[in-house]
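Cont'd.
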Amino acid sequence: MDSYGGQGRMAAYLRDHHDKVVGRWAELVAAGVRSRISSDEVRHELEDFYALLLRVMAQEDEHAMGELRAALDELSRSRARNGFTPRETALGVFSVKEAVYELVADAVELAPEYLTFAQMIDDLGLRTIETYSAAREQIIADQSVAMLELSTPVVRLWEGVIAVPLVGTLDSARTQLVMEKLLEALVSTGAEQAVLDITGVPTVDTEVAQHLLKTVNAARLLGAHCTISGIRPQVAQTIVALGIEFGDIATKATLADALALALRNAGLKVVPA
Amino acid sequence: MDRVPIVKIGRTLFVSIQIDLEDESVVRLQEDLADELAATGATGVIIDITAVEIVDSFIGRMLTMIGSISRLFDAETVIVGMRPAVAITLTELGLSLHGVRTALNAEKGLALLNGTD
Amino acid sequence: MDELPIQSGDDVVRVRHQARVAAAGCGLSLVDQTKLVTAASELARNTLVHGGGGTARIEVVRSGNGRSGVKIGFADNGPGIGDTELALTDGWSTGNGLGLGLSGARRLVDEFELSSEPGAGTTVVVVKWSR
């Protein structure tokens, strides 16, 4: 239900007993969050919601419901970020029913309006749970990105030679990050040789190969020459069986071989001391 | 329409693209470079795109064409200073800029040109 | 929301600039900004060259879970595209281009919608979300 009309008399009643209801509501909410939020802060938050609720109930303007929902969404997201449980968050909304009931319990003529009011509050309470879940999912997604960042180091093997050891699956999100870090490292070190080590990549199928090719192409646009190292025997067989062509990109079994090649390309030679 | 200046140093033509060029200017650059190559007999072209934030398929095509035109005049073209974000975007677009060489900056670009004879 | 005319090369530059401003304002990463603006450049040029001119609408949008993004719509009253499926395949081209315009632009954005009828113009709407 989008509009909860017919609460005019309750709205007036609640306006008259503003302090008493908000005070009781604040009490119930504070008890629920077990003093992780000060009662002053709770009271402050609830004052705003109360005002919005009254506007909706009195049907004063058509924006009131939209504003109330937006304010609740913001509160849910904040609760999610600060580690409150979904129950604590939703109870913050549901508990207003108790506060209001205590006030209108004896006014039998308000019963139909109270029902509408309760339905509206239930709807809003459920909404906070949905918003809360969405916010938690976003936090998890952000943490995955952070983990991804940590697992993509770029190391300097030698003057002008950098390496990116890839560990784990190489999906498109990972590839984006690898490309960004590799290119930034090329700019900051001025390296002209890069080695992509895939020893830690469990499977190399056509998709992974495409990601590797994209990375090599991007590095080339910055004037760097790439070698792919860490081709294991099973991987080599899979690549051939799938018909994947690496073209003129040099591939080596080990990082050591790739380093030797990179040094040769850079015009350097390792000689006994 | 903005005209991109072409500077000749030794046997190399230097072009530095500083602003967001609209299509007409890009085409004009190609024409001007062809004229300069013919007139000076330069053997190298360095196009500095350090300040360029967007390279779409039109500009990419122009860069490749400049490479081909240069080759007809027996000159080599090096694109230098491509920004990482631009390189990633071009790769996603599927443009590899075959036919032009690339380097991190003008100094390396020059070393590349002088290293090949 | 900005509505910009696309009738000249300078207009294409203006669309790029506005797209950049909107993308930066939404908190898109530098790479994502570049991708969006590049896609906008491709599509604006298409509108000008193949569509005989048209308009671009740039607006900031919000997703269900609070992320913000940039939505750009291109519209023209040009000849339209007969086979939209074909147009979205790599390598397809009408003019002397590389045929990378539409399919390339699609790879750069998160959402891509193309609608076109021969003789009834073309609209393309793209969205790029912040992460």
